[in-house]
Write a structure and sequence with these properties.
This protein is α+β, with helices and mostly antiparallel strands. The chain is built from ten helices and 16 strands. Helices cover 43% and strands 22% of the residues. Strands 7-11-8-9 form a four-stranded mixed β-sheet, with helices on one face. It has a three-stranded mixed β-sheet with strand order 2-5-3, with helices on one face. The radius of gyration is 56 Å and the shape is elongated.
């Protein structure tokens, strides 16, 4: 086995194989030196702060390639000005090497406007700041949606979600101020359904039930009844129901009176309730008889003659002081007065006793 391995023919084959391998490796590296211009290096020219057109021309003259990429917009520099180079200026590279140029764009990069409609203003502000958009004026407008974003404006025009704007662009927001209270309901009777809908929307009320007499849905029908009634005070956002027909309101009087009996029943009976309330609070009619007798049994009449006696005594003293000589005449007057007063007392006492006995 070893003898056959050390045979001269085997050794010659091994030497030939080694020579071929070494020759192949040498030729490969030689070819690479020629192909890659080994030892022939070029210094990267300094094209910083130059326009992209000037930088490209210099790189072409130097035998170098180029690749242009946008950088973050910086308003301190001119648009399309070279801000960075890779490899850096002065580096030695091979002929034909690609040089990456970072150029200042014309403006900020565009971003998509997020959908913030009908959302709370605090959440909308955060979403816009995350994207990189700035908030300008906040315009409050009467609306049922309090503190919700109604519209987005850019330079006075309405901005739709998804539109592309440069980063750090300022946009205005229209925000709902909430509904107003105690607003007069507009008069819609005599108008078409289409006109009534526009007026309801303008006054920030909601469109409620719309009942057509013929069962159709023609918006040219005339409104002959509405609930709540015209000029009633309601808060914005309340619903207004409509009844419409091809006929005029004058021709629909029967239907209007029927609807009044249903929807205006409170208005018809409220004043009666206020008038009848004190009547029902009074005692039952069965107690009316003793109430009529009670004023007869009250004793103020008994007290009145006592006051009359006092009044009569006062003139007695005055009369006695003035006519001192004639004392017989006032005595007759005094004797007559109690005679008249005594029968009144005797007549009233039995009445009081009768009432007490009953």
């Amino acid at each position: 086995m070893l003898k056959s391995f050390f045979h001269w023919k085997v050794l010659v084959n091994i030497l030939l194989a080694a020579a071929i391998f070494v020759g192949a490796v040498w030729l490969t590296f030689r070819w690479l030196e020629i192909h890659t211009n080994h030892g022939k290096e070029i210094a990267v020219p300094n094209v910083m702060n130059k326009s992209v057109h000037e930088a490209i021309k210099i790189l072409d003259d130097s035998g170098l390639g180029y690749e242009v990429d946008s950088f973050k917009y910086d308003p301190k520099f001119k648009p399309f000005q070279v801000l960075q180079i890779y490899p850096s200026p002065g580096s030695r590279v091979k002929d034909g090497r690609t040089i990456v140029l970072k150029v200042n764009p014309r403006t900020y990069a565009q971003v998509s406007v997020p959908d913030i409609l009908d959302r709370y203003k605090g959440l909308a502000f955060r979403q816009l700041e995350q994207v990189g958009l700035k908030i300008g004026d906040t315009i409050y407008e009467p609306s049922i949606q309090r503190d919700a974003v109604l519209r987005m404006l850019y330079n006075g025009s309405v901005l739709k979600p998804g539109a592309l704007l440069p980063r750090f662009t300022t946009i205005d927001l229209v925000i709902g101020a909430g509904p107003k209270r105690n607003i007069s309901v507009p008069n819609l009777v005599g108008l078409t359904v289409q006109e009534a809908k526009l007026i309801i929307a303008q006054n920030l009320f909601e469109i409620g039930l719309i009942e057509y007499e013929d069962g159709g849905g023609d918006e040219s029908d005339i409104v002959y009844y509405q609930d709540p009634a015209a000029f009633d005070v309601r808060d914005q956002g309340m619903q207004i129901d409509l009844w419409a027909s091809k006929k005029t309101p004058a021709e629909m009087r029967g239907k209007i009176s029927q609807l009044n009996s249903i929807y205006r029943i409170k208005d018809n009976y409220e004043p009666r309730n206020y008038q009848e309330a004190p009547v029902y609070n009074e005692p039952v009619p069965n107690r009316s008889e003793p109430l009529e007798e009670t004023p007869k049994a009250v004793v103020p009449k008994v007290e009145t003659p006592k006051q009359e006696v006092k009044k009569q005594e006062i003139p007695k003293t005055a009369a006695e002081q003035k006519p001192k000589a004639t004392e017989a005449k006032p005595k007759t007057a005094t004797t007559q007065a109690p005679a008249k007063a005594t029968p009144a007392k005797t007549e009233e006492k039995p009445k009081v006793k009768k009432v007490i006995v009953e």
